[in-house]
């Protein structure tokens, strides 16, 4: 597989120093930047999927006329949380 490059990035010296100060043992600045780019891509993909699910849910509620109160949703989430805590204990 061929590799590709990401354009070089010009930053203020203070930002570069701050990045270098948080590098872990054996970690390169390039590795840090690659990790940050991958993490941001994943976060944006997850955010887009979250928004898509929310819009689909809204459309389904409009189409069916079935809505749930925030109190009912919170109660169900609290029950799930309590079940998960009990299972992990």
Describe the structure.
It is a single chain. Helix content is 72%, strand content 0%. The protein contains three helices and no strands. The longest helix has 36 residues, at 29-64. The radius of gyration is 22 Å and the shape is elongated.
Mean pLDDT: 96
- The fraction of residues in strands falls at under 5%
Distance between the termini: 45 Å
Q: What is the helical fraction, as a range of percent?
A: over 70%
Unreliable stretches (pLDDT < 50, length at least 5) are none
Question: How many distinct helices?
Answer: 3
Q: Radius of gyration, Cα only, in angstroms?
A: 22 Å
Order of helices and strands: HHH
Give me the secondary-structure category: mainly alpha
Shape, per Cα inertia axes: elongated
Number of strands: 0
Strand count, sense and closure of the main sheet?
Answer: none
Concise overview:
With 89 residues, this protein is mainly alpha-helical. It is 72% helix and 0% strand.
Question: What labels describe this entry?
Answer:
89 residues; mainly alpha; elongated
């Amino acid at each position: 597989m061929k590799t590709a490059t990401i354009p070089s990035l010009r930053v203020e010296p203070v930002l570069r120093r701050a990045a270098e100060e948080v590098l872990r043992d054996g970690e390169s600045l390039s590795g840090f930047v690659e990790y940050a780019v991958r993490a941001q891509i994943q976060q944006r993909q997850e955010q887009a999927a979250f928004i898509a699910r929310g819009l689909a849910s809204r459309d389904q509620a409009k189409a069916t006329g079935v809505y749930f109160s925030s109190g009912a949703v919170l109660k169900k989430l609290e029950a799930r949380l309590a079940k998960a805590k009990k299972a992990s204990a």
